[in-house]
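We were asked to recover a plausible sequence for a given structure. The inputs and outputs are reproduced exactly as logged, with field labels preserved.

PROBLEM: sequence recovery
POSITIONS: 204
GIVEN STRUCTURE:
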């Protein structure tokens, strides 16, 4: 279930850093859209930092912000992944992965120190990125005859629909993307044309 018409994410990948008592926390923020991308980025970081003691991370995916995960990678429970995720939440972001690579400096930081370090590094990475708003779209399929072409086209124009595909054989078939914010208006207008078949395909 979607709760808004758009969501926020980062426009560019970025890096941040936090230093404390000899330990270095190198943060990386990545724009992602699926778990395969996340796995690839994490593998890449582990290759880049083979001697690092920990590679902790958190991510959130989807326009509904319901898919997420946190990982402490051997740090005391709740001291790494959770504060990293708190940065994602405080910035209201989705489709983002933040990973923090730790190089141990020889001095224990304690629970509070670790939480502050991971949160500080993650926050610095986000501060170096550009946050952008992504509008949520509903994709529809329309089937209609030549008699309804002008009305359908006018309706699409009225809601600024993006035409993805058009085919014509014995009848017209068209696939369009409509911003969620305009979807109710679009559906109401299309339903006024009794010979037009409208079906929802997916959310983008």
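RECOVERED SEQUENCE:
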């Amino acid at each position: 279930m979607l709760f808004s018409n758009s969501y926020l994410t980062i426009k560019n990948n970025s890096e941040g850093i936090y230093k404390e008592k000899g330990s270095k926390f190198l943060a990386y923020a990545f724009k992602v859209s699926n778990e395969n991308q996340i796995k690839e980025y994490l593998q890449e970081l582990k290759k880049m930092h083979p001697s690092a003691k920990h590679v902790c991370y958190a991510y959130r995916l989807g326009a509904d912000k319901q898919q997420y995960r946190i990982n402490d990678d051997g740090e005391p429970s709740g001291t790494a992944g959770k504060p990293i995720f708190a940065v994602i939440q405080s910035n209201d972001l989705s489709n983002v992965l933040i990973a923090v690579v730790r190089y141990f400096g020889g001095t224990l930081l304690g629970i509070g120190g670790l939480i502050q370090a991971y949160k500080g590094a993650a926050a610095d990475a986000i501060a170096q990125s550009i946050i952008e708003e992504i509008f949520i779209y509903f994709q529809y399929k329309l089937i209609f005859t030549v008699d309804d072409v002008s009305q359908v086209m006018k309706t699409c124009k009225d809601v600024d629909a993006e035409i993805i595909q058009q085919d014509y054989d014995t009848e017209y078939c068209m696939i369009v993307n409509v911003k969620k914010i305009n979807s109710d208006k679009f559906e109401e207008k299309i339903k006024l044309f009794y010979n037009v078949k409208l079906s929802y395909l997916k959310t983008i």
